[in-house]
From TrEMBL, chain A:
This is Metallophosphoesterase. PANTHER family: BLL3016 PROTEIN, METALLOPHOSPHOESTERASE, CALCINEURIN SUPERFAMILY. PROSITE patterns: TAT. Residues 59-251 form the Calcineurin-like phosphoesterase domain. It comes from the Bacteria. GO terms for molecular function: hydrolase activity.
């Protein structure tokens, strides 16, 4: 509401100072804790969020880009850092209502990778809502393995919606039928579904949308955006509070535009460079001691009657 | 540079102009993509999310092999579905033999901003 940063994704719009952010960037593999307050999301540092949000209606957790199976120098054991992220979730004082995984569960869509990921994620003891990343659709059936495992009750390539305590959650898939030279893509069928999915909702309903690739254009040169993301957002324009949660870029970025807050989560596997800061978006190799500071989870708190939805990014270490 | 030369500078009686024109012609021929002969092998390497070289010109019957040198998997997918590789992990390879003439624009289905082109045309 107060910020309109339309051109540059602000890495520190969530109140984390640059120095703190860079320090966070030194761990590997955490998550984001999201807090919904009266429908409006806002990013807070972990400490201040815990202090300022005494009346949480509920909390949910975001985890992303676990890339189970990745074993390259940037993180030789992505399974271990996922395990550490889940261990971190288990230490949260307030148990989240559920968890969302914003894609790239596996690295190469192999059954064993999905099996290993499921085994560890299960240890969090939370219901999990998934969307696929492009790395989850690499089986011979181009996504059949994902849908068989995670797609029950979903439509099309795996999109769906659900409600939790008055908040409407929409899980979108923007990693199928990508076009040469293009960005992430939702497609006509999914957009039509989205339009009808929200048609009957009062505009006061808080909306949380999650998908793998950022729905807003972060950096088209690296494909970090969704070609028809704006059309999806147009269907959500009338809602007072829209929170968009994504992964894919393996780093925290936040932007607030009107009633919409965009946020990307860290990976639990390996960090990627800031847009344009490297020749390619390939894995960022950090000193071993620094890796866990750039991985993480996120928690989100929803508090009815107070304004913002608080998003707390937590690194695995630091 | 790789467009067919449709207009050449007119050769006039002036020897300097003629020499200039001949030089231009030689230069144009040298720069024009020369198809790799049939049966030869061509390798396209993938480095830093880029196909290298981004465009190759080959004769029909040539096999093109892609090699992934990145720490991230990639795929090779023809825009018109003539070919589609499985996922190539680091050091993974994919080969396709081009038997028919034409332009084949391809991309990585994981990172669609990565595009390349294979031009298949009979040698000289």
């Amino acid at each position: 509401m107060t910020k309109s940063d339309t051109s540059t994704p602000a890495a520190d719009a969530d109140g984390i100072h640059r120095r703190g952010f860079l320090e966070c960037m030194t761990w590997a593999g955490t998550g984001i804790l999201w807090s919904l307050s009266g429908g409006l999301p806002s990013g807070l540092g972990l400490g201040s969020a815990l202090a300022a949000e005494p009346a949480k209606a509920f909390t949910f957790l975001q985890i992303s880009d676990s890339h189970v199976g990745f074993d390259k120098p940037a993180n030789p054991d992505a399974l271990s850092t996922l395990r550490e992220a889940v261990a971190r979730i288990r230490t949260l004082k307030e148990k989240p209502a559920f968890m969302i995984h914003t894609g790239d569960i596996s690295h190469l869509s192999r059954e064993k990778e999905f099996d290993d990921a499921d085994q560890i994620v299960k240890e969090a003891g939370l219901p999990v809502f998934y969307v696929p990343g492009e790395h989850d659709l690499l089986d011979d059936g181009q996504g059949k393995a994902y849908l068989d495992r995670y797609g029950k009750g979903s439509k099309g390539a795996g999109w769906y919606s659900y409600d939790h305590d008055g908040v409407h959650f929409i899980a979108l898939v923007n990693v199928v039928e990508l076009k040469a030279g293009g960005l992430g893509n939702l497609g006509t069928e999914q957009l039509e579904w989205l339009e009808s999915d929200v048609a009957g909702l009062p505009s006061s309903t808080p909306i949380v949308v999650f998908a793998h690739i950022p729905l807003w254009t972060v950096y088209p040169e690296w494909g970090w955006g969704t070609s028809d993301g704006l059309q999806a957002l147009a269907y959500l324009k009338r809602f007072g509070s829209v929170t968009v949660l994504n992964g894919h870029i393996h780093q925290v970025m936040q932007k607030v535009e009107g009633n919409v807050t965009f946020h990307t989560a860290r990976s639990t596997a390996f960090p990627q460079p800031a847009p344009g800061s490297a020749p390619s978006p390939g894995p960022l190799k950090l000193p071993a001691a620094e890796l866990r500071k750039s991985l993480g989870i996120a928690t989100v708190n929803f508090v009815r009657g107070s304004q913002p939805l608080a998003i707390i990014d937590q690194p695995l270490e630091g | 540079m790789r467009q067919p030369i449709t207009q050449l500078p007119a050769l006039r009686s002036n020897p300097a102009t003629a020499l200039f024109a001949a030089t231009l012609l030689a230069l144009a021929l040298a720069l024009a993509a020369r198809p790799v002969a049939a049966g030869e092998e061509v390798t396209v390497s993938i480095d830093n999310f880029t196909f290298n070289p981004a465009e190759v010109t080959v004769a029909p019957g040539t096999t093109v092999t892609w090699v992934n040198n990145d720490d991230i998997p990639h795929t090779i997918v023809d825009k018109k579905q003539a070919f589609r590789s499985k996922v190539l992990d680091t050091e993974g390879k994919y080969s396709f033999t081009f038997n028919t003439a034409g332009d084949f624009t391809y991309f990585c289905s994981l990172h669609p901003h990565m595009t390349g082109k294979v031009v298949v045309k009979p040698a000289g």
